[in-house]
Amino acid sequence: MVTDKLRVAMIVDSPGLLGFATDNAKLLASTGKVEPRLLICQDDTPDGDGSVAWQRLAEKSDRVPAGDYDWADITGFQRSLAGREDYFLGRCWQVASSICAQMEDYLAAHPTDCVIVWAGVRLIQRAAASAARQRGVPVVTMETAFFPRLPNTPPDDPGLVLERMRLHVFVWDVVQAPQCGSSQITEEWRQHAVQPGLADFIRGLHESRESKYNRDNIGRYLSVLPHNGLEQGGAELARPEGSRVLLACGQIDHDSNIYFGRHLVRSWRELVEETISRLPEGWELWFKGHPLDTEYLATGEEFTQEMAARYPHFRCLPPSMNIHAAIQAADAVICINSTVGLEATTYGKPAITLGEGFYTHEGFTYRVQDLAALGETIANLPATMTPEHAAARDQFLSYLLYQYLLPVGRPERAVQRIEQAIARQQERPAPPAAAGSKLRYRGLVRYVQALEQMLVAKVYSPDKDRLRKQLEEVRQYVRVLESESSSYARSLEQQLKVVQEYARDLQGAAAEAAGYALELEGKLAAAEAYAASQEQRAGAAEAHAGALASAVEDRDYQIMEFLSSRFYRTTSKLIRLKRRLLGVGRKAG
């Protein structure tokens, strides 16, 4: 059936994402411009409830992808969660291969205008996105936002529930998730002006004590949280006399913000240890762990006792403490690339980052690129942000809050973002379709190598006979492709001979053209000589005409002179005759 609606596929890779994806699909469909379909890719995820069209892509299929994929990139984050490099050779690789192959089949059978993934960092989401991009289908990445609400957000916005957290604002990025590197933010934020209502909105966030993870969401996510009176306004956060306070904010070690990008440290322990060991005299370090980091919650007390024993100028804050109170009590903030660094700048506090992030290159933080320079950077921090930093911050926040981030209650803006991704893709050259056989060959060679390694290492091979059969089938397919490649090579050789013959014909034609050009040059020279002779004749004729004109002028003068002379003589005779007649008359009288 022909439709003018945008055909959008939403990737679902976990049971916790199904309800969120279903609700989001309904919102997009409510605009009348989108025809959404859920692609459920994890085997233990329940089927769709029927309110939105869905299709299952099995993660344990034996399908082999046709494209050539960067498996290390697709599986890297998932392998980091497993903590084992050899995990790549087992189930992780098989799932990625299966999803890529089935995604290829789906896109071939179902014309798709856009694919939407959540975060785009987990294995299944990354595999589906890679398959889509290889076929020229744009990908939009959704992610949790950096702020809990936006200016002009509808007050009755219900939000969407994701992993037991009710969220009202989301990232919709047409490039990739901001934590993965250069994103839509990087490309666009400098093109937007500072919004007049920014200061009032930021003031309202401060007064409400709202942040990315508010108390309600923390309570939904964790059943047990450490509670402390400090979180009620920070009355007990007494600042040490004669010292400045540097607030260090931890992050979840296995989070994608830590995995992607180049960072000087990659854990909250390293952040504290590297900072405290380089802390200048006159400074005190306060550390606040991430409120959703279960590992820190389990080991935080032991860590606090260890650091307090080693460093008297160290203090550990409760992870559930309101971040606004902690920032207000500090003089500056240090983190890897946490959103807290951005929040600190809204208070005018200098922020130091030890890693790459979506805001760390934008000219309003102190990005340390060498730990040896950390102590000097801390010592030279100003009391407040410089005017240049504040101006860049305001422009950056205006773009984030008024343009980039999208509220749940405005699905029409999400449709505009999808249309933007499609237009962006249309401006790019199409993937090379002629390279299909080559891509299949390279991909299958990698597949064979991985299967051979799996057999040797005995990793994830519950049915070795089936695995060997699969390996033999793939080898046979590779041999077929090699045969096809040989035939294709012979065909290219024949085409090359035809082209060479045509080139020789062109050379002959070129020689004939060169001779004709020489003949034309000779004729042109003769024509130029004839023109020169004609010019000479014209010059002679002009001179003759001048001489004739001069002769005529002289003759005319002579005639005039002769006539004048005759007229004078005749007149003289008449006068004398008149006189004589007058004399005769007088005599007669």
Note the quaternary state here: single chain
Largest sheet: 7 strands, mixed
User: What is the total tally of β strands?
Assistant: 15
CATH topology-level name of the domain at 6-200 and 423-433 = Rossmann fold
Q: How much strand content do the residues show? A: 5-15%
Uncertain residue segments: 223-235, 432-439, 458-462
CATH architecture assignment of the domain at 6-200 and 423-433: 3-Layer(aba) Sandwich
Outline type? elongated
* Average pLDDT metric: 83
The number of helical segments is: 17
Distance between the termini: 142 Å
Q: How is the largest sheet built, in terms of strand order?
A: 3-2-1-4-5-8-15
Q: Mind telling me the C-alpha Rg?
A: 44 Å
Describe this entry's structure for a reader:
- The chain has 589 residues and is α/β, with parallel strands linked by helices.
- Among the domains are: 206 residues, Rossmann fold, CATH 3.40.50; 183 residues, Rossmann fold.
- It has a 7-stranded mixed β-sheet, with helices on both faces. A 6-stranded parallel β-sheet has the order 11-10-9-12-13-14, with helices on both faces.
- β1, α1 and β2 form a beta-alpha-beta unit.
- The longest helix has 125 residues.
- It is elongated and about 170 Å long.
